[in-house]
Amino acid sequence: MNFTKTTEQSSKYEHLEKMSVAQLLQNINNEDKTVPLAVEKALPQIEILVSKVVEKMKLGGRLFYIGAGTSGRLGIVDASECPPTFGVPFDLVNGIIAGGDKAIRRAVENAEDNTTQAWMDLQEQNIAENDVVIGIAASGTTPYVISGLERCNENNITTGCITCNEGSPLALTAHFPIEVVVGPEFITGSSRMKAGTAQKLVLNMISTATMIQLGKVKGNKMVDMQLSNEKLVDRGVKMIMGEIPVTYEKASELLKTFGSVRKAVDGFNNN
Question: Among 110, 101, 111, which Cα is nearest to 79's?
């Protein structure tokens, strides 16, 4: 297969150790500026995958991210933010990392090379045909991720991926690939940098656009967010005041009674 890992190509910068702090920061920033443009080119691919996720979730399906190392951690971060932001169940969007939860903090040796564990991890979550599994791998060659998607394909489970190399084995495996080609990293091969940033941007798009399509946002407000601290309670009260003509005290009372901004506004309007 004619496949070149552009993420592994040599950095266009030389002698990094001789640069001043100002030069290092400026050059890293210059490279970072190219990432949103690379994501923009992949928008048609992202749209197709988001539409499929929404379709499956409306049928009762769930979303799974699987990855190793930085890619796995980014999937976990995105998944873990969905319940507090959108008030959805904790098992609606799930992040799975090669090596298990201990790999979130420390690398687990050879975990990404395991070609059977991803499917086992997914089976533990009772993976089903209405679910969608998105493999995340900057290189597009991670065995854990590719093998997981292959088994999903065999079992009629929709698959997608986020990778930063064009024409990778992972992209050829996924039903709905997303390829964000960011080019060589500032430090050669350090895909936690531009590739990681690209993956984070795409994950933000997937989860946010999906939740909006599912009605979890009204106007531009997180009306179903979990009220887990004083800051969010205060934000919720002010959101209610922006929707209905009540005082801060009344809005606070409504929020306490109904438990969410959406329910408080609906409860007030229906009385």
Answer: 101
